[in-house]
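Query structure, 188 tokens:
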């Protein structure tokens, strides 16, 4: 399935993340979440978040540092004005029309508030603008929240790979063909 993404002003298109999404309304006294490019100063906090979320599958600090150097344009973070609450890391392959999502992590205290959708939407928009036409990722089969998110964004399940990350670490392989800008048809 290819998602054709018309102009943002098209009346027949609803963005994946409406500007008024209730899940992103901050509580009293909180700043709204802000997606931004990662900075060098974010690396220690990025590493902390990655370890918290991915535990034994977390990237070592030096790998995150190298990803920052290689994929800085495709490493986005979301913060609340003081703390990193999530990140998405995309890596464009040697074929610039293909990309892998190498990580999407949301702070445990901030889950189910739309931050994963916000990060993925911004990442996919940026990838579209850079000419990426196919986005791949893997998901732990038991991570139903992530599977639901990716399916709702238009990703399709391609395969289930046994021992993808070593013995007992199976993964679901998913793909999203892109065309244009990220948006979905409006509901009838």
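Result returned for the query:
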């Amino acid at each position: 399935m290819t998602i054709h993404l018309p102009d943002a002003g098209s009346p027949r298109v609803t963005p994946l993340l409406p500007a008024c999404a209730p899940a992103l309304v901050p509580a009293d006294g909180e700043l709204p979440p802000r997606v931004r490019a990662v900075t060098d100063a974010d690396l220690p906090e990025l590493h902390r978040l990655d370890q918290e979320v991915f535990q034994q599958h977390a990237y070592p600090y030096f790998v995150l540092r190298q990803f920052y150097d290689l994929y800085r344009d495709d490493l986005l973070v979301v913060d609340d004005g003081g703390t990193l609450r999530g990140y998405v890391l995309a890596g464009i392959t040697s074929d610039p029309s293909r990309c892998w999502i190498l990580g999407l992590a949301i702070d445990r205290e901030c889950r189910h508030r739309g931050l994963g959708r916000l990060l993925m939407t911004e990442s996919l928009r940026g990838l579209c603008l850079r000419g990426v036409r196919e986005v791949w990722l893997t998901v732990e089969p038991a991570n139903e929240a992530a599977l639901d998110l990716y399916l709702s964004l238009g990703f399709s399940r391609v395969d289930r790979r046994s021992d993808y990350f070593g013995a007992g670490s199976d993964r679901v392989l998913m793909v999203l063909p892109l065309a244009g800008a990220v948006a979905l048809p409006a509901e009838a």
